[in-house]
UniProtKB/TrEMBL annotation:
Originating species: Amorphochlora amoebiformis
GO molecular function: flavin adenine dinucleotide binding; tRNA binding; tRNA dihydrouridine synthase activity
Keyword RNA-binding: yes
Gene3D superfamilies for the chain: 1.20.120.1460, Aldolase class I
Record-given protein name: DUS-like FMN-binding domain-containing protein
Lineage start: Eukaryota, Sar, Rhizaria, Cercozoa, Chlorarachniophyceae
NCBIfam families the record matches: PRK11815.1 (NF008774)
Sequence ranges assigned to domain DUS-like FMN-binding in this UniProt record: 108-423
Keyword NADP found: yes
Cofactor entry: FMN
Length: 438
């Protein structure tokens, strides 16, 4: 049927891309195994999507690890394609991306394999005001894959929620935006900070886009024009530089180029990406030094644009200081995964409104009911996927390790999800279970 065909075609495209990288990483014999397992997957279940299959096969999982948390479109574009795209953009009319309807004072960073809708459901019991982001979704996945599965979210409770797209082709990104508009995300963000493209050795994706400000501007313009249909803001998440292009002047040029095509909202991960030294994505989040002063300079140099600072923020106090220093917002990633409960005071402290004030007993009660329904609705949803968001809920408290171990062990035994949570809660004392933020 017409539904199956594009999915299968999309997978062939991606198999080709993965095959290319595999030559480098594993050698030819493994490539044929890789192709074999993918072909097998296609035969056994035509609707299986790449995100699932990556989880299922060990070799693909290894490939995924080597690609880091970001993966997807690894196509290589030719210079002529680029210049024709640049040419055609010069003739088109200019649209300015509207400001974000709700201020992004605080946001939870997009994180592959973490910020899925289950994690966002949990987060909404911790903060009602923080902006939430999807995991990065490639425009190619939206075009060739199961777009509804990738795009649907818990409307309306997840708002404000932004979709992050990854891609390197103006038409594909426009198509991706078009598919996303009916879902009414509060913003659509282009990933210009993901370092994983180093694997392909040819930069045209994520942080590599920062090497080509004019071309990235074409991508943004294409997205902005499409998103104008519903007045959806288009924002950009980038690093402060890439490889040798790491002085402030370069960053300013990059922001200027995107500003010229109408981008008004930027999220700046305040360290550069190093693409030419074979760092893993994880190393690329740790080794390049943080240079917050670059973000502060942008705030001064582009007073009508808004800048969200990201990278290394560990506490509400730190976030508050950055806000007082003039940035429009602060985005936090790893610390939210590591200790989600801590951020239950963010609505009061940073937005000046009441916290949700749910205890963790209440949160887990709600989450348990939610997980049962989700698993009934979606037979493909695994227990560990649906329970991953709650695993760090008691970090630092007595019994936290037993809590996590209980979840892991009972998940492996395929015990019912509500029974697992009931057993896990028993590891935690009443005082911690019933604690509330002010
Ligand atoms: C597991 C993981 C996955 C990530 N996935 C994405 C992603 O899909 N898109 C993106 O723009 N950044 C991604 N990042 C980077 C974060 O959004 C953020 O920029 C980075 O972690 C720095 O912020 P932090 O120091 O508060 O963690 C990821 C980071 C982690 C740890």
């Amino acid at each position: 049927g017409s539904h199956v065909q594009p999915t299968v075609m999309g997978e062939h495209t991606r198999i080709h891309g993965l095959g290319l990288i595999s030559v480098v990483i594993f050698g030819l014999s493994q490539v044929s195994y890789l192709r074999g397992s993918l072909t097998h997957a296609n035969l056994s279940d035509k609707s299986i999507d790449m995100r699932r299959s990556v989880r299922c096969w060990p070799l693909l999982a290894r490939l995924r690890t080597s690609l880091g948390p970001h993966r997807g479109n690894l196509g290589i574009r030719s210079a002529s394609l680029r210049s024709s795209a640049l040419e055609s953009s010069k003739t088109s009319g200019k649209v300015i991306s509207p400001p974000l309807a709700l201020g992004e004072r605080f946001s939870v960073a997009p994180m592959m394999d973490y910020t899925d809708r289950h994690f966002r459901f949990l987060l909404r019991m911790i903060t009602k005001k923080a902006w939430l982001y999807t995991e990065m979704i490639t425009s190619e996945a939206l075009i060739h894959g199961d777009a509804d599965r990738l795009l649907r979210y818990h409307d309306p409770i997840e708002h404000p929620v932004a979709l992050q797209l990854g891609g390197s082709d103006p038409d594909s990104l426009a198509k991706g935006v078009k598919k996303a508009l009916p879902y009414a995300y509060d913003a659509i963000n282009l990933n210009c900070g993901c370092p994983s493209d180093k694997v392909s050795g040819r930069g045209s994706f994520g942080a590599a886009l920062m090497k080509e400000p004019d071309y990235t501007a074409v991508l943004c313009e294409s997205m902005i024009q499409q998103a104008a249909a519903t007045d959806t803001p288009v924002s950009v998440k980038c690093r402060i530089g890439v490889d040798e292009n790491d002085d402030y002047h370069y960053l300013k040029q990059f922001v200027t180029a995107l500003g010229d095509v109408g981008v008004r909202h930027f999220i700046i991960h305040a360290r550069k990406a190093i693409l030419n030294m074979n760092l893993s994505p994880k190393q690329n989040r740790e080794i390049p030094p943080l240079k917050y002063q670059y973000v502060h300079r942008l705030v001064v140099d582009f007073p009508s644009y808004s800048f969200v600072l990201n990278g290394g923020v560990k506490s509400l106090e730190e976030a508050d200081e950055f806000l007082k220093a003039g940035v429009a917002g602060v985005m936090v990633g790893r610390e939210i995964i590591n200790r989600p409960w801590y951020w239950g005071d963010v609505d009061r402290r940073l937005f000046g409104v009441e916290n949700p004030r749910l205890s963790r007993r209440e949160i887990l009660g709600n989450y348990s009911a939610y997980a049962v329904v989700e698993m009934e609705r979606d037979p493909r949803l695994g227990i560990s996927t649906v329970l991953k968001p709650v695993q760090h809920l008691f970090v630092g408290e007595r019994g936290a390790r037993a809590y996590r171990r209980t979840i892991a062990e009972l998940s492996a035994k395929k015990v019912a999800v509500d029974e697992i949570l009931k057993a896990a809660i028993n590891c935690i004392g009443d005082q911690d279970l019933d604690q509330r933020w002010p």
